[in-house]
Amino acid sequence: YLFKIPMADSLIYSTARDHNAIVWTQDVDFKDLEGVQYFKKSYS
Considering the entire predicted model, what is its pTM? Predict the structure, then answer.
């Protein structure tokens, strides 16, 4: 497998890639993937 992420996350990621979109997320599953802007959750 190319990426080891949950099925729902893979659908989001592949759809974004098909549309040349950036995934903006706080979901750590996406953290190191190309085309993703990951922001660590803040618990304040």
Answer: 0.78
